[in-house]
Write a structure and sequence with these properties.
Layout (H helix, E strand, L loop, with lengths): L13 E5 L2 E4 L4 E4 L2 H4 L8 H13 L10 H14 L5 E5 L2 H16 L3 E5 L8 H5 L16 E4 L4 H11 L3 E7 L1 E2 L5 E2 L2 H14 L2 E5 L23 E4 L10 E5 L18 H16 L2 H17 L4 E7 L2 E6 L6 H9 L1 E2 L1 E3 L3 E4 L7 H21 L7
Parallel strand pairs: 3-15, 5-6, 5-7, 7-10, 10-11
Antiparallel strand pairs: 1-2, 2-3, 4-12, 8-9, 11-12, 13-14, 14-17, 16-17
Helix pairs in contact: 2-8, 3-8, 6-7, 9-11, 10-11
The protein binds pyridoxal-5'-phosphate (PLP).
Length: 388
């Protein structure tokens, strides 16, 4: 049976991984500066994560949410502590789209409204409401079209204020990534997030902080939204939460009260997923990985700043983006093919770096060396412009 062909594939058969490296079936090692799309938080196949999952498998892998699952409670305690939001409530799911879907639905249950504000170039997932609040018509099917969603320009305080002034009493929620990932590493300013907070308070709307890509310590704070110094009503999480084990969740502010049957899931919060997620938090704490994200991010930024051929360097911690000249857009392919280095992309010429939070100085030096060589190679092969 053929696979449903929805992904352009790199011709690489990965067979094992450890830390910031991945190996293919021939034994070739690759430096992973992409973390499988920001998923690898504590490093591939971290021994503590492996043994936590193995131990849990020996006990119980799954039971439904109809019984007390102690692993969920242990995860909620640890998450409350590390995120600095111990009074929030945890609802567990399996992916980022599902977390956003539930957050948007919960907001609508909360205030009985149906208008949602989202932002240009946002990405929130591929399920029905999550894709409807995503600013990419190419991935929105006719059945997902929703007239209640309004896209505003990111960081445009006037547009936001105007929209609230006109429609504030109908707005259920505002959903925003602290740093847009798929949109090309575009950061919401602290002032903009503060304005969202105050307008939501004024008009009774909920502020949903999509932290699926920019959260879980990646920027050096647990949620990148924390840099604005205000709290969101709901934080959505996935990706780094399980270090590759599928798990996601919503952190829900205490004023949002649950009702039985309001939300639900079969697989969300299963003991195996909780064990993986607990292992991630334990390693983040034991190895001070949020501090390392800041340290490694600064080192990477400093080295990249000195490199010619790179423009508009931006980001925080280990969520970094930069542009390359259009004629050098092949640099990612060259990095992969000749310098065995995975990076991420955003259209048109943005390179995204989303490595493990445990990235070491040796790995940074190796990446910089590879990047320099790859840039020289594409510059040498780029068509020369004739002087006019
Ligand atoms: C900011 C953001 N939100 C939501 C999602 C969707 O997550 P998932 O693919 O786990 O459904 C993504 C995935 O890239 C994302 O970057």
């Amino acid at each position: 049976m053929p696979l449903f062909d929805v992904y352009p594939l790199n011709p690489i058969k990965v067979s094992k991984a450890l830390g910031s490296y991945v190996w293919d079936h021939t034994g070739q090692r690759y430096l992973d500066m992409y973390g499988g799309h920001a998923v690898i938080s504590i490093g591939h196949s971290h021994p503590h994560w492996v043994s936590r999952i193995e131990d849990q498998l020996q006990k119980i892998a799954f039971y439904s949410n109809s019984v007390i699952l102690e692993e969920q409670r242990a995860l909620a305690d640890k998450l409350g502590k590390l995120s600095g939001k111990p009074d929030y409530q945890l609802f567990l799911v399996n992916s980022g789209a599902e977390a956003n879907e539930n957050a948007l639905k919960l907001a609508s249950f909360y205030n009985n409204r149906n208008v949602i504000v989202s932002f240009r170039k946002s990405f929130h997932g591929r399920t029905s409401l999550a894709v409807a609040v995503t600013d990419n018509p190419a991935i929105v099917a006719p059945v997902n079209k929703n007239d209640n969603i309004h896209f505003l320009p990111l960081n445009d305080e006037h547009a936001l204020q105007d929209f609230f002034t006109k429609s504030g009493d109908k707005i259920s929620s505002v959903i925003i990534e602290g740093i847009q990932g798929v949109g090309g590493i575009r950061e919401a300013t602290p002032q903009f997030l503060q304005l969202i907070r105050s307008l939501c308070d004024q008009y009774g709307a909920l502020y949903i902080a999509d932290s699926v890509q920019c959260g879980y310590g990646r920027t050096g704070r647990f949620f990148s939204h924390d840099y604005a110094g205000v709290n969101a009503d709901i934080y959505t999480m996935a990706k780094g939460m399980g270090n590759g084990f599928p798990v996601g969740g919503c952190l829900i502010a205490p004023h949002i009260k649950p009702k039985h049957g309001m939300l639900g899931t079969t697989f969300g919060g299963n003991p195996l997923a909780c064990a993986a997620a607990l292992a991630v938090l334990e390693v983040m704490e034991a190895e001070s990985l949020m501090d390392n994200a800041i340290f490694a991010g600064e080192k990477l930024m400093t080295a990249l700043q000195k490199m010619s051929g790179i423009k508009n360097l931006r980001g925080r911690g280990l969520m970094i983006g930069f542009d390359v000249e259009e004629e050098h857009a092949a640099v990612r392919a060259v990095l992969l093919k000749h310098y065995f280095t995975f990076t991420g992309e955003a259209k048109p010429n943005v390179v995204r770096l989303l490595p493990s939070l445990a990235l070491s100085s040796i790995e940074i030096d190796l990446f910089i060396e590879n990047m320099q060589q790859a840039l020289h190679q594409v510059e040498a092969n780029a068509p020369t412009h004739s002087a006019s």
